[in-house]
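To illustrate this point, what follows is a protein record of this kind.

___
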Amino acid sequence: MNQPFRILIVDDHAHAREGIREIVQVYDDFEVVGEAKDGKEAIQLTDELMPDLILMDINMPEMDGLEATRIIKNKYPYVKIVMITVSDEVTDLFESLKKGAQGYLLKNLHPSTWYDYLRAFAHDEVPMSKDLATQILQEFNTSNKPQANATTPLSQREQEVLQWVAKGDSNKDISITLNISEYTVKNHLKNIMQKLHLENRVQLTRYAYEQGLIRPNK
């Protein structure tokens, strides 16, 4: 049996931490190794415990989840961070993803859905929602211009995979669209991230836009 994913829970409300812990500890492939009440404590416990996955609240006193995410990802880029929030407000979620978070979960999701989401996050398989992908592209459209005649180290197939990632498609959707296996899609994504030195789908979406591979409303 593989070692369980070590999880750090970060939330300023004790009852929220307890609720998240009760959801997560049901599953053998997750182990809660610590809890923090704010961003500063999250950084400290990350140093001490070296978790694989951090469930991070956004709005907290002392230091919020956005700043904590930025600091932790700069220091430990391999640690996965999932934002846990009661709202799907795009601005906060977008900022957290730009700072390196792998994704987000809404606190009001039914507990039975958490397992699949967390396993997918742990394995880098969760796509952005279509709405979030659209919002990201709209923001880039108002503040950036695609590079003219930009060059890319990606192969033609990798560019095709990247285009669908930027539109919010899942690995499974991409495999069906391109008529390749889901395993092949995962390998393409791994190669793309290594070539570009990027960590998540938001960063990939930005790259796709800046390289002129995709446009808003396309």
Remarks:
- DSSP finds ten helices and five strands in the chain.
- The radius of gyration is 17 Å.
- The chain has two domains: 5-126, 131-210.
